[in-house]
Design brief:
This protein is 29% helix and 19% strand. It has 13 helices and 21 strands. Strand 2 and strand 3 form a beta hairpin. Helix 4 runs antiparallel to helix 8 and helix 6 crosses helix 7. It binds zinc ion. Zinc ion (ZN) binds next to loops.
Length: 466
Amino acid sequence: MTDKPPRSLVRFLGAARTVTGSKFLVETPTARVLVDCGLFQGHKRLREMNWAEFPIDPSSIDAVVVSHAHLDHVGYLPALVRNGFSGNVWASESTGRLAGVVMADSGRIQEHDAERANRKGYSRHEPALPLYTEHDAVVASALFRVAPWMRQTRIADGVTLRLTRAGHILGSASILLEFEDGTAPVHLSGDLGRPGHPVLDPPDPPPSAGTVIMESTYGDTEHVDEDGTRELGEVISRTADRGGAVVIPAFAVDRTEVILVALRKLIESGVIPRMPVYLDSPMARSALGFYVRAVAEGEHEIRDSIVGRPDVFDPGDLRITESVEDSKAINLAKPPFIVISASGMATGGRVLHHLKRMLPDSKSTVVLVGYQAAGTRGRRLLNGEDRIKIHGEFWPVRAEIASVPAFSVHADRSELVDWLASAETPPEQVIAVHGDPEAMDSFREAVADRLSRNILTPGHGETILL
Ligand SMILES: [Zn+2]
């Protein structure tokens, strides 16, 4: 056991001056709670951090709370469990369901990539090993417990949890921790969605807290178009006109659903012709099932206007692939058609096979719809690189590369400041995390300008008293 501190504090073990690997360790004199347990993604330097020894003994953590089911918030959990954590993992019901699928998929991809690297001999490590396996993910899933929305749940000695809506993906929550020893509450935003999300209610305002720890992914960006549907329509129209196909690397959870809603609108209103829309990602297929169920049943975070209307996700000619053979058969389809496939930053998954086919084709288009972390293939495409390495080989980029950043799953600078300003009472300290240094600096200026207050931007491994 590691000693607990005399005063409550938070340690930043990930997503500190970077956007991935979210891990915030809240330590009190009586308990140790880890909020989020994400994977580092992007640059090799970051990915290698996943292999470093965890800074404390995982078995000394009393509970984990997960804000939402994205890999950079939940993807390290199977490794934490394998290395000794055995407490409860608290999350909303939908987050628990989605996390099971996301973690298992991650374990499968890691096993597959390690196996492939060994077979093809392109790993610098001998032999290449997965960070964790699908089996590790299944073991971690069994530790999930449902935390109800808006109600206090005691999760560790002297610590209670309350979830509010974050409007980012299905199940996504902001996390309020309250302490029986009189320490002022801490509120962690998790990732915050945009108020105009077509399926989810907007983020709830922050409850009263001494400390707010908030994301700042787009702290330097103002999204232009309200929802990106018009831009997406233009890109698809011109690709169809020249006889090309469209591939959309999309985060399997939520971006897929938002794009399907947009495609239905575009086809219904005649902006683009009706064409086959392939959903080619086993994880996206599972996630869509959870969204359909949540909309049909009217879960807490679903917009009233679409409760009971799961058809919003059907663009007319939706073809959901099951087997690898179905996926390969898409290669034989005649354009125009659209393929939505994971992963969203083209770091792995079936989308790589579609990119290998589409990138060299000048008639086709790759549409980037989400955040592309530095060092990922998605970011390289966004930067206009003329060849991209996939599976150890370079592929020429002749396809159109289009970006529709308005489809972002994250609030922009104004929306972040609005959220902070809507707090019931202003917090004593505000800490920004989950942003690149430039985004955080710009966000800090915006908060200073509009709210006349300073925010802290701790680096990796730093500690701040609560
Ligand atoms: Zn997220």
